[in-house]
TrEMBL record:
Record bears the keyword Isomerase: yes
Domain Radical SAM core span(s) in chain numbering: 95-303
InterPro entries xref list: Aldolase_TIM, LAM_C_dom, Lys_aminomutase/Glu_NH3_mut, rSAM, rSAM_sf
Organism: Desulfobotulus pelophilus
Name by which UniProt lists this protein: KamA family radical SAM protein
Family note: Belongs to the radical SAM superfamily. KamA family.
Length: 359
């Protein structure tokens, strides 16, 4: 294990490469090319993850380093393609499903993932309206599950998080809390004994983290996940199937088995969302399903997450399996049903040729 384990996470964060010049210098790249991308989508690579990028190359490089293809737009893919803002009653609250909401409590992260589905917001100093959000939750008794997300909630201080979790715990109908954070993977030093002992006071509280490649499972990240699980905090993982990163069934099998070994349960495998800025990572759904079909049944069911797509227009997530794959229209869109049995159109091609023509 490297000495990073004993380096304070605040110091690591402060020493992140964020400017085109600093990233270019660290990785021997052209700052001008990076600049074009960071003008639109900010970059941040902390020293822990930078070290992994240097050690392992492409699969981590692609997740962390801006690439020009991010700027490529298709007029039928939107920055907020999943319509979160339309389903937002209060700034920073996304209420799509009947019994649960997302609170986007921070727009900052320890790494700005190039494939982020919320890249319209991350790094752009968007703040949630704490008082209005708490009032909304109090007034909606149907909400049983509150998900802290962002950005990364662990960018907040321990005190600030404790105060927020305590306020949520005072709402009688809120049963479970979740924190969606990439820190166990991208900056595991953030998972300190102090943070963990604070979190355990707020049980039942679940953490979902985000690993995409077996190279991300290091001594440090295993230690961080172990601290959480030993404190009785269940840890799940939402991975994304990413072109040029993990689009291979053997890599995914190694990833999911590796996660189980560090006691992290694979929760979802997401197809990259149809939003602007993540074209470098999208692949055809048929290809994704082909990869997934070589995993499901081939390794322990404990290790296999459902394969999910998030429906444009705010329909929500729905699982796909090898036995049901609908016919696409000439522009590459298919029809899928959401949890309310309503029909939505989904771009089954990585780059749909036009808007949906199904009706
Ligand atoms: C994904 C998501 C959730 C959580 O969904 P689960 O399937 O319960 O994990 C909640 N709200 C929104 C808006 C989401 O996108
Ligand atoms: S840590 Fe999560 S919210 Fe932040 S950039 Fe990565 S995927 Fe997006």
């Amino acid at each position: 294990m490297s000495s990073f384990l004993h380096t304070k996470w605040q110091h690591l964060l402060r020493d992140s490469a964020e400017t085109p010049e600093s990233i270019a210098a660290a990785l021997n790249l052209d700052a001008g090319k990076l600049q074009k991308v960071t003008d639109r989508y900010p970059a941040r690579i902390n020293p822990y993850y930078m070290n992994l990028v240097k050690k392992y190359g492409k699969p981590l490089f692609r997740q962390a380093v801006p690439c020009e293809e991010e700027l490529e737009d298709l007029p039928w893919l939107f920055p907020d393609g999943l319509c979160e803002e339309k389903q937002s009653p209060v700034r920073g609250v996304f209420h799509r499903y009947p019994d649960r909401v997302i609170l986007a409590v921070s727009s900052e992260c320890a790494l700005f993932c190039r494939h982020c589905m919320r890249k319209r917001d991350v790094g752009k100093k968007k703040f949630f309206d704490r008082e209005a959000a708490l009032a909304y939750l109090e007034n909606h008794e149907e909400i049983k599950d509150v998900i802290l997300s962002g950005g990364d909630p662990f960018m907040l201080s321990d005190d600030c998080l404790h105060e927020l979790l305590s306020a949520l715990r005072r709402i009688p109908h809120v049963e479970t809390l979740r924190i969606h954070t990439r820190m166990p993977c991208t900056l595991p030093q953030r998972i300190t004994p102090e943070l963990v002992s604070m979190l355990r006071c707020h049980a039942p509280l679940f953490i979902n983290t985000h690993f995409n490649h077996p190279y991300e499972i290091t001594g440090e990240s295993a230690f961080a996940c172990g601290l959480l699980v030993d404190a009785g905090i269940p840890v799940g993982c939402q991975s994304v199937l990413l072109r040029g990163v993990n689009d291979n069934s053997q890599i995914l099998k190694d990833l999911f088995r590796g996660l189980l070994r560090i006691r992290v349960k694979p929760y979802y495998l997401h197809h990259p969302d149809p939003v602007a800025g993540i074209l470098p990572f999208r692949m055809d759904l048929a290809e994704g399903l082909g990869i997934y079909s070589k995993i499901l049944g081939h390794i322990s069911g404990m290790a296999v997450p459902p394969y999910m797509v998030d429906l444009p227009g705010g329909g929500g997530k729905t699982a796909l399996s090898r036995n049901c794959f609908p016919e696409a229209d000439a522009n590459g869109w298919i029809r899928l049903k959401n949890f309310e049995e309503k029909q939505y159109f989904y771009p089954a091609l990585a780059r749909p040729l036009g808007p949906a023509i199904l009706s």
